[in-house]
Amino acid sequence: MENDTTQLALSGAVVGGVVPFLVGVILVGGLIWALWWGRRIRSQEPGPPRPDEQPRLPESGPVGEVRERREPAEMPTATTD
Prior knowledge:
By secondary structure, the chain is mainly alpha-helical. It contains one helix and no strands. The mean pLDDT is 81.
């Protein structure tokens, strides 16, 4: 009888230590794969623009913000019958 309880306790300890370890290995493997995949995708993208490719100001100078004050639009009143 004592032999059966020892085997049960041992299997619980193995599951308690091995399963979290395997989950951790899978998570770390997934993170490494994600980093590898991201670098691969990023290497296919064009690089940042060179200084001569940057946008320029118009010859007339910087464009300012335009503010207008408009009359409020009249809202129709709802009639209940």
